[in-house]
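Render this sequence as a predicted structure.
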Amino acid sequence: MEGIERQVLNIIKKLEEADKESVSFKLGVSAEYAAQICSILVKDGYVEENPNGKFKLTSKGKKITSPVRTKKPFIRW
């Protein structure tokens, strides 16, 4: 899996559901390119497309996405 595909998975994970326009905006690419990447992810079983045109992670997609990490402030006493 390429880096941009992982980025798309993480975007969909963060938004819970995303259409190709949202993905393209977050990545800074065209909607057509975002749609191609999403189609590949659907074919590979990482994402499913709802009838309303939004993409959602499958259980396979949830397993491969990296956990969202937050940084804790470093406090030194």
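Summary. The first strand starts at residue 47 and ends at 49. Helices lie at 3-15, 20-27, 31-43, 59-64.
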